[in-house]
Amino acid sequence: xxxxxxxxxxxxxxxxxxxxxxxxxxxxxxxxxxxxxxxxxxxxxxxxxxxxxxxxxxxxxxxxxxxxxxxxxxxxxxxxxxxxxxxxxxxxxxxxxxxxxxxxxxxxxxxxxxxxxxxxxxxxxxxxxxxxxxxxxxxxxxxxxxxxxxxxxxxxxxxxx
Length: 161
Known about the structure:
Layout: E1 8-12, H1 18-34, H2 45-48, E2 53-60, E3 63-74, E4 77-85, H3 94-108, E5 113-119, H4 125-133, E6 137-139, E7 151-157
Parallel strand pairs: 4-5
Antiparallel strand pairs: 1-2, 2-3, 3-4, 5-7, 6-7
């Protein structure tokens, strides 16, 4: 992803923007296609607007490339949510750019740990590869999650970085 591309910006997600609404719909549809609804933890519009969640979007000019969110679980622990690259912009470094940004927010917020829940089938392989590249390690269920055949959990300890 060309970091020198001055036309690329990350900003707080605007839920009234039709492109943002469309990408959230794409995200929810994708999650529900690959995971039974009772095992899907993707956040809908209202959930993404809770006070504990900061939702960001990545743009090039006026084109939405992707989104991601960070949710505070407690003052020391945050969760990554709603990571999604727009289907037209896959394999261009969008998720890497967003993940890097969200982890900078986590460090700036003094979280000691960042966790995430993701699926287990092959649709999640690229995301899992990215998380591992950033140092996330597979671990136990956290927060409201339970172990299941559809979920796996990754954690990144920020206190030693």
